[in-house]
Amino acid sequence: MTEIDLSADLFGQTLTSPLLNASGVHCQTKEELNDLANTSNLGAMVTKSATLQAREGNPNPRYYDLENGSINSMGLPNLGYDFYLDYVLQEQTKPTILSVAALSAADAITLLKDLQASDYQGPTELNLSCPNIVGEPQLAYDFEATDRVLSEVFSFYTKPLGVKLPPYFDLVHFDKIAAVLNKYPLTHVNTINSIGNGLWVDVDQEQVVTKAKGGFGGLGGTMVLPTALANVRALRQRLNDSIKVLGTGGVTSGADVFAHTLCGADLVSVGTQVMKEGLGIYDRLAEELKAIMAEKGYQSLADFRGKLKEL
Ligand code: YRO
Known about the structure:
With about 300 residues, the protein is an alpha/beta fold. Helix content is about 30%, strand content about 20%. It is built from nine helices and 14 strands. Helix 7 links the parallel strand 13 and strand 14. Helix 4 runs parallel beside helix 5, helix 5 (about 170-180) packs across helix 6 and helix 6 packs parallel to helix 7. The mean pLDDT is about 95. The chain binds ligand YRO. Ligand YRO binds near residues 24, 74 and 75.
């Protein structure tokens, strides 16, 4: 029997598996990050998005498990940029993507200027689901504002940088965001963030299930899989080859990892299902993926990556 090779590439580093955690899940504290570092079949890890100042986040309940996924209004709880920078510089034992976020475009520039001046040379991901101007949508849903911010960032930033994107739902929006992103030397896009501002109703209690924002929150898990696959596929079809696509959203099985890869994902992240099942999921997903590849006669991810057939 030929050995199946799940190796993948993270901007020049070889990973033993294409699987990542989705930012936000089990990656906030030093203990959680160390757990990820010790998780087999997790190829690389991502930190909770860091802001300049540490944040407590929103009041509980702020994460709620749903039959087909999850809803969250965490409110960016994190230990602050200095903590995560220190972790990747001093404690890192597995390839790590430093995720950063900002409460304004100005804060994003401040943070990235500091990162540029630091000793850190590894990959960073800017979470574009950050608030911009009051009364305007999140940055990634304002294409001109995204262009302005990236233009300013790349006037001084020379290290590996990608962006985390929210889902888009209109083909013209895929064209517009891809046209902006293609202007810049991005290492990658990570798609999708949670589907914004869903609402779950507990019919028995006749009430919402999370406290902040009147119960509105980001959706993840199985219910977002088709949206995630569409975003991976649509962006892979539009972005420069030099920009890798990291697929995130709705993965619960090896078949889902296979589907993300067929749509063009270079790496695949798991969020909600890690919350439901724990870190042992990565061994299960790797085994299920290998079984599918064996059945189909594929030896490496490159054999089928991006090769989704149309009718
Ligand atoms: O609430 C969060 O911390 C959160 N949840 C998500 O599902 N995705 C995110 O990117 C974040 C952090 C960013 C923000 C939504 C609070 C602006």
